[in-house]
Amino acid sequence: MNLKKLHIIAPYPKGEAPSQRFRFEQYLPFLEEQDFEIHYHAFHTQKSWNRLYQKGKFLQKFIDLNYNFLRRWILLFRLLGAKHIFMHREMAHVGPPVFEWILVKIMRKKYIYDFDDAIWIPNYSSVNARFQKLKCYWKVRYLIRWAEKVSAGNDFLANYARQFNSNSVIVPTTIDTENQHSRLVDQEQKPLVIGWTGTHSTMHYLDFIIPILRKLEQEFEFTFKVISNRKPDYQLKSLLYQDWKEDTEIDDLAEIQIGVMPLVLDAWSEGKCGFKALQYMSLGMASIVSPVGVNTKIIQHNENGLIADSAEEWEMNLRKLLQDEILRKELGKNARKTIQANWSIEAWKENYRALLQK
Predict the structure, then answer these.
(1) How far apart (Å, rounded) are the C-alpha atoms in residues 282 and 261?
(2) Is-cis flag, bond preceding 191, omega within 30?
(3) How far apart are CA 297 and CA 154, in angstroms?
(4) With contact defined as beta carbons under 8 Å apart, do 171 and 348 qualify?
(5) DSSP structural state of residue 167
(6) Which end of the chain is more exposed for a tag (fewer CB within 10 A), N or C?
(7) Class of residue 296 by CB neighbours under 10 A (exposed 0-12, middle 13-18, buried 19+)
(8) Tens of pLDDT along 312-337?
(9) 143 burial class (0-12, 13-18, 19+ CB within 10 angstroms)?
(10) How far apart (Å, rounded) are the C-alpha atoms in residues 158 and 292?
(11) Alpha-carbon distance 241 to 238, whole Å?
C-alpha cells in the first residue's frame, strides 16, 4: 500500500483543544482509511500546555517556550520531503511567522491553512496578558496569503481570508454523531438542568444571563450546570459546577435539558463557529442562542431551537422551555436531525477528503 504522509501542524497536543478536536482530529480515522499516514506535530508538549494558563511559573514557561521553538526548528528538517501539509492556526504559539516564511519562501513547500476563530483580533487570557503582544496577531494575513488553500470555519472567516487568498473555502466545525455525540438527553428528567459548557476564557458571556437565572430561581426548580476548566463565582443557589473531562464529556452534557449560548455582537464572536450549539443540538437538546455569527444559520427559531437577543427575550424563552416539555422534546428532535443532515462528520467527510487532494 502506497501511503501518503500527511503532516499536521497545530498549536496544541492532540485531544486537548476543541478547535482541533472538532476541526480535524475527528477526521483522522477517515483520512487513514483514505491511505493517509498521519504525522502530528504540536507546538506545545503536554507538559508545557498544562502549565501555559497556570499563574506564575514564568521561568518554567520561558524554558518551555525555548524548547518548543527548538522542536519547530527540527521539524523544518523533517518536512524537507513533505508533500501534504495541513496547518491549523500557526506553527508557533507566539512570535512572527518565521517558520512559515522559511517553509514557503525557502523550502518551497505548500500547505493547507485552517482556522476557526477571528484569530487576527487580539483575544487573550488575563493570566498571560503581559505577553499578549508576542502573539503577533498581524501574522494571520500572511499565513493565509502564503497558503495553497484555506479552510475557514464560517462565512465571516472565509470573507476575511478571501481578501488575501481567493482559494478559500468554508469547512464548518462538525460533530461525530455516530461514535461520540450519539446519546440523547432525557427531557423528562426532574429537576430540569439548564447548562453551559466552555473554557474560563469565554465564561464572561454568561454574565448577561445570571440576573435572569437568579430571577427564575424564585419561581422554578432547576439546576444551572456549568462544565468548564475553572469554577465560576456566580451567586446562584441553582449553580452546579463540573470539571470538564474528555472521557465523560458526552455523559456530562447529556444531563442538560436546556443548553444556553449567550454571546455579544462583536468581531470576535462573529468569527465563532457555533460549537456549543452544535454540541447541544447533536444530543437532542433544546437550545437558546444569541443571534451572532453562524448561530442564525444553525438554528431556525421555534423549529430546532430558540434565538434570544435582549434580556426580555432570554427570560421569555427560558420560561417557555422550563414550562413546556412538549416544546423541549420537539426542538431537541429537530435539532438532532439538523446536525446529522448538515453539520456532522458523515455529511462533510468527503469535502474534507477533497480539501486534501492536490
Answers:
(1) 15
(2) yes
(3) 10
(4) yes
(5) -
(6) N
(7) middle
(8) 999 999 999 999 999 999 999 999 99
(9) buried
(10) 16
(11) 10
User: Rounded distance, CA 19 to CA 243, Å?
Assistant: 19
Cα separation, 223 vs 118, in Å, equals 33
d(CA 165, CA 152): 11
Q: What are the tens digits of pLDDT across the range 278-313?
A: 999 999 999 999 999 889 999 999 999 999 999 999
Residue 297 CA: distances (Å) to CA of 175, 191, 274, 306, 318: 16, 31, 9, 12, 21
> Apex CA 243: angle with CA 338 and CA 40, to 5°?
70
What are the cell numbers at 180? 461520540
213 SS3 class: helix
Q: In what order do the strands lie in the sheet with 258-261?
A: 239-243, 222-228, 192-197, 258-261, 286-289, 306-307
Grid coordinates given for 33: 482509511
Rounded Cα distance between 71 and 74, Å, is: 5
Contacts of 201 (CB under 8 A, 6+ apart): 123, 125
What whole-number distance in Å separates Cα of residue 294 and Cα of residue 153? Answer: 9
pLDDT for 11-63, tens place per residue? Answer: 999 988 888 988 999 999 999 999 999 999 999 999 988 888 777 888 898 89
d(C-alpha 127, C-alpha 141), whole Å? 26
Report the relative pairing of strands 84-88 and 149-152 from DSSP bridges.
unpaired
Q: Which residues contact 165 (CB under 8 A, 6 or more apart)?
A: 113, 144, 145, 147, 149, 150
